[in-house]
């Protein structure tokens, strides 16, 4: 069985062992002030196989994936990829996101990708608003944006080529084997 660190590395495709804790990732993170663990602490915890600490932190859910941490890393460790890998592992293990709204948005985003083969913003926001109990509150703004051409109606779910379906199924099989 793979250790927590090995699982993160397998999903992200990057080694965490070369991180020497310079903390440039934490210094550049725009969300650092909101996180319970700074990016460097998450990376250190991954290297120490502290699975519970990482998967139950708010840090992995508050990471916006801007990749500032990855750009600043002198070792090319890719902390943003490690954060995403941690979110994937948390969901696989049935750990609910420690920031409810972020978890709902994340699941809506991934669901839109699996359904349509691409991300359609209004679909993601509509599902997230519905699940957050804010759909009624958000309708006036959505209508205003729609009327001004700032958003488009969602597409019909992707039913086209079998090529996309094959890619999707191969990805699911590969994910199941990790």
Q: Layout of SSEs?
A:
Blueprint: H1 4-12, H2 24-28, H3 39-47, H4 51-55, H5 59-62, H6 68-72, H7 79-92, H8 100-116, H9 121-132, H10 135-147, H11 162-176
Explain how this protein is built.
With 178 residues, the protein is mainly alpha-helical. The chain has 2 domains: 4-92, Orthogonal Bundle (Fumarate Reductase Iron-sulfur Protein, Chain B, domain 2); 100-176, no CATH class. The chain is 61% helix and 0% strand. It contains 11 helices and no strands. It has helices spanning 4-12, 24-28, 39-47, 51-55, 59-62, 68-72, 79-92, 100-116, 121-132, 135-147, 162-176. The longest helix is centred in the middle third of the chain and has 17 residues, at 100-116. The relative contact order is 0.11.
In the CATH hierarchy, the architecture of the largest domain is: Orthogonal Bundle
Indicate the low-confidence ranges by residue numbers. Answer: none
The count of strands amounts to 0
Count of alpha and pi helical runs: 11
Tell me the structural class. mainly alpha
Q: CATH class of the largest domain, anyone? A: Mainly Alpha
Give the H and E element order. Answer: HHHHHHHHHHH
In total, how many domains does the architecture comprise? 2
Radius of gyration: 18 Å
Q: Summarize the biggest pleated sheet.
A: none
C-alpha termini separation: 10 Å
CATH topology of the largest domain: Fumarate Reductase Iron-sulfur Protein, Chain B, domain 2
Report the portion of residues in β strands. Answer: under 5%
Mean pLDDT: 88
CATH superfamily of the largest domain, by name, is Alpha-helical ferredoxin
**Shape annotation:** globular
Quaternary arrangement of the chains shown?
A: single chain
Helix content: 55-70%
């Amino acid at each position: 069985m793979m250790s927590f660190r090995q699982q993160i590395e397998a999903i992200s495709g990057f080694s965490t062992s070369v991180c020497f804790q310079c903390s440039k990732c934490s210094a550049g993170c725009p969300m650092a002030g909101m996180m319970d663990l700074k990016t460097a602490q998450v990376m250190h915890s991954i290297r120490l196989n502290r699975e519970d600490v990482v998967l139950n932190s708010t840090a992995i859910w508050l990471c916006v994936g801007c990749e500032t941490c990855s750009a600043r890393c002198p070792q090319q460790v890719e902390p943003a990829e490690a954060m995403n890998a941690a979110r994937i592992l948390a969901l696989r293990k049935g750990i609910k996101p420690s920031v409810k709204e972020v978890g709902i948005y994340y699941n809506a985003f991934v669901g839109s990708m699996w359904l349509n083969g691409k991300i359609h913003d209004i679909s993601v926001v509509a599902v997230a608003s519905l699940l957050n109990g804010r759909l009624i509150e958000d309708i006036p703004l959505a209508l205003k944006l729609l009327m001004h051409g700032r958003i488009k109606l969602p597409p019909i779910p992707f039913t086209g080529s079998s090529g996309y379906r094959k890619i999707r199924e191969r990805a699911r099989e590969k994910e199941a084997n990790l």
